[in-house]
Design brief:
Layout: H1 3-7, E1 13-14, E2 18-21, H2 28-35, H3 38-41, H4 52-68, E3 74-78, E4 83-94, E5 99-106, H5 115-130, E6 135-141, H6 145-153, E7 157-168, E8 171-181, H7 182-189
Parallel strand pairs: 5-6
Antiparallel strand pairs: 1-2, 2-3, 3-4, 4-5, 6-8, 7-8
Helix pairs in contact: 2-4
């Protein structure tokens, strides 16, 4: 299996409330709206967007990834309004090990509504069913309780603390590591 086998024709994923799709140029103001919020960027590796140029830089990166048929972010679209409210993606994928890691960000206007969990569950399903994965993991800064709750509600198991596991924004951060295995996914999701 190759990356382009799965992402060559970028898959659109749907849930009850969300459409996970390619980011488009029309999404730039929606993305800037949450990307410029310091509360959103507090626990991510990238800096708060100071101008639309910062957002445009990320947009160009994403569009380039689609063009290369490589791992790229899904825009999280709120179906009710068509508004882009965040992104979710596989931030890494080891094809030989059949493992991957997910990452996500969401506009604070939509926090606390189970939206990121809904998106994460759909991406996890895609990973196990379409990418032939045996393990999917996620990491968060130890103080990021919201992200940790998403991992728990998505069926992931806490594995431990990766001490000083990430250097970002001028310092090392401890990370919480969660994962879900294919057999655990089958046990949780095929019963529902």
């Amino acid at each position: 299996m190759k990356t382009e086998d799965v992402f060559g024709s970028f898959p659109v994923l749907e849930t009850e409330r969300l459409c996970l799709r390619k980011i488009e140029n029309k999404d730039i103001s929606d993305m800037f709206e949450y990307g410029s919020n310091p509360e959103v960027t507090k626990y991510v590796t990238w800096s708060t967007h100071k101008s639309l140029e910062d957002t445009k830089g990320f947009m160009e990166f994403a569009l380039g990834q689609y063009e290369k048929k490589d791992l790229a972010p899904w825009g999280i679209e709120w179906k009710e309004t068509g508004k882009l409210i965040g992104t979710i993606d596989f931030v890494s994928w080891s094809i030989s090990n059949r493992t991957a890691e997910i990452g996500y960000v969401l506009s604070p206007d939509y926090w606390g509504k189970g939206i990121t969990t809904e998106a994460a569950r759909r991406v996890i399903e895609f990973g196990f069913k379409e990418m032939n994965l045996v393990r999917i993991q996620a990491r968060c800064f130890t103080e990021n309780a919201g992200s940790e709750r998403v991992m728990q509600k998505a069926g992931m198991t806490f594995e431990g603390i990766i001490r000083k596991g990430l250097y970002a924004k001028g310092k090392h951060h401890d990370l919480k590591l969660y994962s879900i295995l294919k057999e655990e996914y089958d046990g949780i999701y095929t019963q529902n």
